[in-house]
Amino acid sequence: MINIRVYADTSVFGGIYDNNFQDESNEFFEEVKKNRFVLITSAVVQAEIEPAPEKVKIFFNDMIEFAEIVDISTEALYLRDAYLKAGIVTSKYSDDALHVALASVSNCSLIVSWNFKHIVHFEKIPLYNAINILNGYSKIKIFSPLEVIKYEEE
């Protein structure tokens, strides 16, 4: 089995307790526990989880044993700034760009997110990938958990 390096942003952890995203978020994390995915998350996610409800923090802490947590690097900040300079998102949403940068510099195959405005968006994904290529990184696939979990054949 090939383990796929998948970066999960804060929205996926919070999705566990959101009625709209609960089932797919839970299934994604179950597949992480079954080693279908290598879970990558970051210091940015840790910081964003801090003000979250206690149950989200507890869930995140439980998942740390299954995760590799990447630190914010100069390399990631440089790539984030390239995204901002390209106008993919404004500086107000620089942490969203940083999630993509961290995943890219950490050699993730894909990102999962419920952030449809700044990350999982059909106009933004090719722009992130163009900047990645210009800066010597691979293209990265960006999906919601809904699109990566396995479904039983009926």
From TrEMBL:
Per its UniProt record, what InterPro entries does this chain match?
PIN-like_dom_sf
Domain of life, per UniProt, equals: Bacteria
From which organism does this entry originate? Candidatus Desantisbacteria bacterium CG2_30_40_21
Protein name as annotated: Uncharacterized protein
